Amino acid sequence: MQQYGLENIRNVVLLSHCGAGKTSASEAMLFTAGAITRLGNVEDGTTTSDYDPDEIKRQISINLSILPCQWKGVKINLLDTPGYSDFVGEVRSAIRVGEGAIIAVCAASGVEVGTEQVWSYCEEAELPRLIFINKMDRENADFYRTLEQLQSKFGSRCLPLQLPMGAQDSFQGVVDLLTMKSYIGSEAKEAEFPASLQTKADSLREKLVEAVVEIDDKLIEKYLGGEPLSLEELSIGLRRAVVTGRIVPVLAGSAIKNIGFSLLLDAISNCLPSAKEREVIVVGGSAKQVDKIEPSQDAPLAALVFKTSADPYVGKLTYFRVYTGAISSNSQVWNANRDGAERIGQLFIPRGKTQEPIPQIGAGDIGAVAKLNVTSTGDTLCNQDKPLKLAPILFPKPAFNLAVHPKTKTDLDKLGAALSRLSEEDPTLEVRREADTNETILSGIGESHLEVAAEKMLRKFGVGVKLETPKVPYKETITVPAKAEYKHKKQTGGHGQYGHVFLKLEPLPRGSGYEFADKVVGGAIPRNYIPAVEKGVNEAVKEGVLARYPVSDIRATVYDGSFHQVDSSDICFKIAGAGAFKKGLAEGQPILIEPIMNIKVTVPEEFTGDIIGDLNTKRARVQGVNPEGGLNVIEAQVPLAEILRYAIDLKSITQGRGSYKAEFSHYEEVPAHITQKIIAERQAEKA
Ligand SMILES: Nc1nc2c(ncn2[C@@H]2O[C@H](COP(=O)(O)OP(=O)(O)OP(=O)(O)O)[C@@H](O)[C@H]2O)c(=O)[nH]1
Ligand SMILES: [Mg+2]
Fold first, then answer.
1. 21 φψ region: left (φ > 0), alpha (ψ -120 to 50), beta (else)
2. What is the C-alpha to C-alpha distance for residues 569 and 359, in angstroms, rounded to an integer?
3. 254: Cβ below 6 Å to ligand 1?
4. Distances in Å between the alpha carbon of 302 and those of 141, 294, 374, 385?
């Protein structure tokens, strides 16, 4: 593939609610542009984009794919993203490196939750965009109803650039409102303008032209003066209006029938900004503070790593987008985030699963390289003598946790390495060890996200795991001071055993942990046996008397005892220390305590009541509701045990419009009826 200048490159992100047809549309574009010779489809698992076995099995996109093609002298890098909200990390990466977006909408389902979500991402990133109303061939497809929804949700700047000819079974092509020409079938053959559409097309064209001329005073003058505007003037004006976000053109087609794609490719190259037109934000390096630089070929290298994938055969693959300068095969670059040099081997242009070797990747373009050492997603590659850091990619923090249990001993041995490679590949996955429950916890965006991660672990690294709801790290403590005595005495054949300990147990404030003190006077227990007593208590602390949870917030003081000249030993005092502690616990009116979390739930206002209602069933104390950026933030304290699967509940209450964060606050007593249940469960477990 030849090299293109910045003006002739478009990095275009495909976004939508899940299943609107991004992958099918990208396949149709690749086919129409001649980048592939066979048109694959999602149902057969033959698309260029969804090549991963997990994607083929589920018939959904999971990973971001880079799909380059060439169209009329322009290189278009399509970035196909997953629509399923669990994989939002991939969407974030793609948006970060694109200059323009196509939002696909299903002509039958219309505007959906995911459509609104990706629209807001585009607003945030100020991405110029087109809307493609796909599936015009489908039963129930309705271009005008969908258009109305778009305009009512996103405003009157969503203006049709095309109209469909027919719909559902009879959908056959589109008319272009700028040229007033009509195109039929997958070949986009020019046909006679359909008379039935004339009036509608005229009036909608008028609206489009009115919006276009507003971009330029000279055009307005001409237009108001009744002078005809040339096609060139209109298309330059339209381009400026789209690039500045004043117009979001609406197009139509069918990916399955491959109708509408040469016009979509035209719209990408004519209306969406080139790689030259988006400023680059620098946050560090020689630029010191936040700064903006122009994309340029004649400047030192600045490339952003936006994706890393762990391939069991090739090893690690690093995908990057070059903003300034160029990067060459077999060279050395500087990683500004790690302060380290990185050797670059053979560079590739990726297209789905295939990789085409290339000597150099210039400004504006996207490439990949294998086996980098220190580099991970979000890093900037540059020249060592001109170091700089590009603005990072902001990923959502994972909030849904599951415990990972390896299936066999071999799985256990390989687990750590596999998990760390997975989380390197996916910044929305986190792994940590929960010391209190002795579990490995995998955190992600949602249940499917973690299920896919587990499958990937098996397929790529041969590690089998079971995912389970994490255990709650309950603890036990006492509520009143208690004293206990324990005498360990045995008279066997020869040498006897003797240890005798008095302990005082006192409850401590929450969060104090466990303390041991020695107040023995007068040698009732000789000094050299005190460490043995402490050891015994230390061990007994690990399992309480209610439900075998660790004991906390307690002070144990040894204050008396007795010994035997011959029969006493360390082991005897250890047994006596542990025994006294257990007895004391039972005397101290023991209780279970549980972790309480601070939770912040962010939802559209209309869900506030339902969220609070649901939190109330979860033993939560709602502490406040605050508006924040058009949304409501509900703050509450809630027991961890009640929100182990909150990501799923929240999704079903809000249809995916909510998000939440939870962090540990403190421990509190478990209500009695729940304590009884937990004790019964632990007993059953033991049996
Ligand atoms: N009838 C009809 N079906 C389509 C069309 N485009 C896509 N589909 C079907 O819709 C389903 C989803 O298509 P995809 O291309 O996977 O949609 P997507 O937006 O990439 O989905 P995710 O990546 O999972 O969000 C598949 O079964 C496609 O065959 C179309 O134009 N017409
Ligand atoms: Mg897809």
1. left
2. 76
3. yes
4. 45, 11, 17, 12
What does pLDDT average to over the chain?
94
φ, ψ of residue 568 to 5 degrees: the values are: -75, 145
Which residues, 6 or more positions from 186, have their beta carbon under 8 angstroms from its beta carbon?
257, 258, 259
Element (H, E) at 237: helix 231-243
Q: How far is the CA of 272 from the centre of ligand 1 (A)?
A: 24
Alpha carbon 427 to chain centroid distance?
7
Written as six digits, the tokens of 407 are 């299936």
Closest ligand by atom to 19 CA: 1
- Ordered strands of the 129-134 beta sheet: 65-71, 74-80, 9-15, 100-106, 129-134, 248-252, 158-160
Ligand with minimal distance to 135 CA: 1
Q: Whose CA is nearest to atom 30 of ligand 1?
A: 135
DSSP string, 130-183: EEEEE-TTSTT--HHHHHHHHHHHH-TTEEESEEEES-GGG--EEEETTTTEEE
Answer whether 56 contacts ligand 1 (Cβ < 6 A). Answer: no
Res 1: pLDDT:
64
User: Whose CA is closest to 485, among 499, 468, 465?
Assistant: 499
Give the pLDDT confidence of 330-361 residue by residue, as tens digits. 999 999 999 999 999 999 999 888 889 999 99
Q: Give 572's pLDDT tier (boundaries 50, 70, 90).
A: very high
Whole-number Cα distances in Å, 434 to 37, 175, 470: 52, 60, 9
Q: Which residues pair with 250 in a beta bridge?
A: 131, 160
Q: Is 82 in the pocket of ligand 1 (CB under 6 A)?
A: yes
For 10, list phi and psi in degrees, rounded to 5.
-125, 125
Task: Give the Å distances, CA to CA, from 82 to 4, 20, 89, 305, 371.
Answer: 28, 10, 9, 19, 26
Q: Tell me which residue has its CA closest to atom 11 in ligand 1.
A: 19
Angle (nearest 5°) at CA 321 between 364 and 301: 75
Does the predicted TM-score (pTM) go above 0.70? yes
pLDDT in tens, 385-415: 999 999 989 999 898 999 999 999 999 999 9
Ligand at minimal distance from the CA of 261 is 1
Q: Distance from the CA of 20 to the center of ligand 1, in angstroms?
A: 5
d(CA 126, CA 123): 5
Tokens 């005397």 sit at which residue? 587
Which residues are within 8 A (CB) of 455 and not within 5 positions of it... i.e. 6 or more apart? Answer: 54
Per residue in 461-497, pLDDT (tens digit) is: 899 999 999 999 999 999 999 999 999 999 877 788 9
